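Reminder: ligand-aware prediction takes two inputs, not one.
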Amino acid sequence: MTEKITKNLALELYRKMVLCRKFEEKVAELVNKNEIYGTTHEYVGEEAVAVGVCSALRNNDLITSTHRGHGHIISKGGDIRYMFAELLGRVNGCNKGKGGSMHIADPGIGILGANGIVGAGVPIAVGAALTIKIKKMDNVVISFFGDGASNQGVVHEAMNMASIWNLPVIFVCENNQYAVSTSVKYSLKIENISERSKAYGFEGKTIDGMDVLEVYNNTKEIVNKVRSENKPFLLECKTYRYSGHFTAEKILNLNYRTEDEINYYKSKCPILSFSTKILNDGICTKKELDDIDNLVINQIDEAVDFARKSKSPEPSDALKDMYATEYTGIPQKGWI
Ligand SMILES: Cc1ncc(C[n+]2csc(CCOP(=O)(O)OP(=O)(O)O)c2C)c(N)n1
Ligand SMILES: [Mg+2]
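Here is what comes back for the chain with thiamine diphosphate:
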C-alpha cells in the first residue's frame, strides 16, 4: 500500500506510537520499583498494530482488548493519567483502582475492556456487534487477540457465530509469534492464521504489523467494507514483542528466543522505520519529531505525578462496583 498521507496524519501516527512506547517504558520502571504491584505485559515493538488499527476507526467504534492492552487503550484515546492511576491502584484510576493493568475499561470511548483471560475479549466483541446489528447502528467492533488466543475454543465459537449472524466485527490477530514461551512454529501447522477465516465463511488477510501505514490503510479499507456489508473479517498482523512475556521475565532466564532473532526485529522497529520514511519523504522535519518526543515525555511525567497524588481506595469500598461476590448464603445489605 503506497497511499500518500497528510502531514497531520503522519505526525499523529508517530505521536501515538511514541506515547505507547514511552508509556510502557515508564510502566516497566514502576513495576521494577514496586510502585505498581504484580506484573504487566508490555506492548513494546507492537505499537504499529494498535495505532494503525485504532487510527482508522470512528470515535463510536468499539474495541475489546487483551492482557497486553495498554497500547490498545492509548490508541483508542484512553487518558494516560487515569491509566497510570489505575495501574497504581488509586481511586482516580479509570476503574477506581480495582481493575489494574489487565482490566482497564472505558466504555465511554468505546473500550469494552482489556482482559486477563486469553481469548475472552473475542466473544464480548461478537456480543457487542450483535447489539449493533439489533439496534441498527453503524459502528463496528474490533477484537484484538494473540496467536496463542487463536487456538482457544471460545475464539472459534465466536468467529463462527459472527459469521452466521453477519456481524460487523473485525478480528485483529496480533501474531507476535509467541504465547509466553511457545513459538507458533510449535503451536500452528499453517503459515497464516488469517487462512482460518475461509473455514468460517468470511474474508481474511495477513499483513506486516510492523508497518503502521500498512496497518492503517488496510484497516480503513476493511472497516468500510465491514460497516457497509455487515460481515466479519479476520486481519492478521505479523508483529514481535521486544520485551519478555511479562515485565519480570528477565530474572527467569527462559531463553526461548535468540538474541539474533530479537535484534532482527528491533532493526524493523515500527517507530524508527516510520520516522525514517516520513523524514525521507519530506513529510516532516526532525525538529517536529523531536518536539513530539519531548511533549510525550512531559505528558508521561505529569500523568505519573497525577497518579502518585491520587488516593488509594478505602477498604470499605472493596465490594462496591463488583458484578459478582462470593455467595455466603447470608443476604448482604446493598446486594439487591
Ligand atoms: C484462558 C487462559 N489460559 C491461559 C492463560 C495464561 N496466559 C496468559 S497470557 C498467555 C499467552 C497468550 O499468548 P497470545 O495470545 O499469543 O498473546 P501475547 O501474550 O503474545 O500477546 C497465557 C497462556 C490465561 N491468562 N488465560
Ligand atoms: Mg502471542
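Residues 7-32 form the longest helix (26 residues). The chain has one domain: 7-317. We will return to this case in the review session.
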